[in-house]
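Students often ask what a 'structure token' actually looks like in practice. Rather than answer in the abstract, let us consider Phenol hydroxylase, a protein of 103 residues. Its sequence is given first.
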Amino acid sequence: MSPVQTPVLRSVEGRAPRFETLTKYIRVRSQPGARFVEFDFAIGDPTLFVELVMPPAAFEAFCQNNHVIEMTDEQMRQVDAELEKWRYGEDTLMAHNHDRSPE
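Now compare that with the structural description of the same chain:
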């Protein structure tokens, strides 16, 4: 699996882009109809996100105000893979044991 290509965060003039021009990503984690919407929110890079919780009406307003887009399936897979590396580490004893079924 190849990594998701993330846009370079530089303007044509070499300066940092304006906040308004950066893509804002969401990934909803809660179930439909839940009392609160639990979601990931990222600006510019879907792998760098914060976890937020809002009532549904506030979430809708937040999404409209920020012109968000939903993460693609590939972006979500990349985020999940990064979380797994942080959870189990790489080249550690646990990294080799977490996918094994009990014998």
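One point worth highlighting: Residues 19-97 form one domain. Ask yourself how you might have guessed this from the sequence alone, and why that guess would often be unreliable.
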